[in-house]
Amino acid sequence: MAIVDQERQPSKTAAEKRRRAEKQQQPTADPRPLELDPEARRLLHDLQVYQAELENQNDELRRSREELEASRDAYAELFNFAPVGYVSLDEHGVIQELNLTASSLLGMGGGALGGKPFAGLIADAEGREIFERHLACVRQRAGIQRCEIRLQGNNGTVIYGQLQSVALTREREASYILTSIVDGTVRRQLEEKLQIAHDRLEATVKERTRELTGANQQLVREVQERNQAEDTLVQFLEEIKVLKDRLQAENVYLHQEMNLVHGDIVGQSNALKYVFFRVEQVAPLNATVLLLGETGTGKGMVARAIHNASARKDRPMITVSCTALPANLIESELFGREKGAFTGSDARQIGRFELADGGTIFLDEIGELPLELQAKLLRVIQDGEFERLGSPRTIKVDVRIIAASNRNLTEEIRAGRFREDLFYRLNVFPITLPPLRQRKEDIPLLVKHFIDKFNKKIGKRITNVSKGTLELLEKYHWPGNVRELESVIERAVILSQGGTLKVLDRFESFSESGGTPECEIKVLSQLEHDHILQVLQKTAWRIEGKNGAAVLLGMNPSTLRARMRKAGISRQ
């Protein structure tokens, strides 16, 4: 800012103006000069010099006014279009003037704000107290004072900003006469420097804002991706845990199944060929199959044959013996349970329907299933869904059901022990397995099959069977069917010496007695009773397990229990 003190150089300026005026009033050649006395000529000369001096002063004032107006216009342009909001206040905080940037930020024109208290634009009471203290500091101190406040625009938006204020006292303004705001060259230099600094600051702010925005967006994406990855990981871990539990349970059941498999179905009789035909018909389909027949006819092996010939062969076939499980545990075995579902359930258990998902479940001796569970089984067959004990969550499964029974289910329905609607759901494709007495032509093949099996198991080399032994075996009624024949052959292989099979069971009494089949059945029942009792006493009445009576007798534990009930054998 160029400050000029006119009181210090008045004579120099006046003398210079006078010399300039006199020079302008030098006499010109006049062909007819006026005839004036010397005093009049002097006065005229002084008048002319004064007139020229006034004209020069007018020209100088006009130029000064034009420069002042141009400078004022430049200031107004800088003031209005500056990138920073400027507000001029009086000492009481009343708005005198504001530039376009401030008007735009506040959403109101300068005319609407002029003469109004600046404190009315502050968003909260705390900010108004800060402004009052700030205003007092500005009035009391020289230099720039700063404070941070929040302003509220016309549309309700809140503006966060820093207020920078400087006081312009009347004393300073009155002490000087400003002949210019800034010299043109200096002003342009200052404007250029200001514009360069502003552009640089704005570019830096934009670049930093872009960097911070990009970093923030990247951070948000990373947080989202991490959250998604954590959710996915939790889901995978849960699925892995479910699959691990299922595989462990499948492994246990498959080991149990391996111990129960008795080999392939052996026979060439017409009755058995018809069973094979029925198996070939239904195996590729997902239809429910009901296997009917006496105990020991091979219903489990037929179920296995159906499963192995189906599209589900790569998934497990889970077997449930409805007679081997206590009534109070059948539901949890079939449908699973949650931890704490009932007293003693200290861990979650996956049910066998879950294990069989995608595969086959074989419900052996379905007629033994308690009536209260038949409704739940019916729902699984119809809708493919159930709930674990102690859990409200519904589980969906895709399971093929093969059921088997040695009971007459029609009579069970009449007696009220079996649901009729469940029977219709199970009896979609029934297959009746013939008893061994109806396919005696298969006995020689079965005898050979079992001799080969137990030769390998025991280490014998029996190769011959006498004609009389075969005739004796063919005449026998075989109430235990193939399973009973297998048990007889195993004992015979153990007891036989040399290469010829000797059957030491008392079959000769049947042929010698010449009795009726009913008589034979009575005698065989007594023999069976005595034999089972003897084995039970030998195993200390242990039925299941590696050294249990069922293994020694070559029977399923459920079959042995059924035989014991039928024969009236119970531990004293």
Question: Mind explaining what this structure looks like?
Answer:
The chain has 572 residues and is of the alpha/beta class. The protein has 5 domains: 6-24 and 36-81, no CATH class; 87-182, PAS domain (Beta-Lactamase); 183-238; 261-434, Rossmann fold (3-Layer(aba) Sandwich), CATH 3.40.50; 437-567, Helicase, Ruva Protein, domain 3 (Orthogonal Bundle), CATH 1.10.8.60. The chain is 55% helix and 10% strand. It contains 21 helices and 13 strands. It has helices at 10-24, 38-81, 100-106, 110-113, 125-140, 170-175, 184-260, 270-282, 299-308, 330-335, 352-355, 371-383, 409-414, 420-426, 443-458, 467-475, 481-495, 508-513, 517-538, 549-553, 557-567, and strands at 87-89, 95-98, 145-152, 158-165, 289-292, 317-321, 360-364, 385-387, 394-396, 400-405, 429-432, 464-465, 500-501. The strands form 5 sheets. It has a 5-stranded parallel sheet with strand order 6-7-10-5-11. Strands 1-2 form a two-stranded antiparallel ribbon. The protein is rod-shaped, with a radius of gyration of 58 Å.
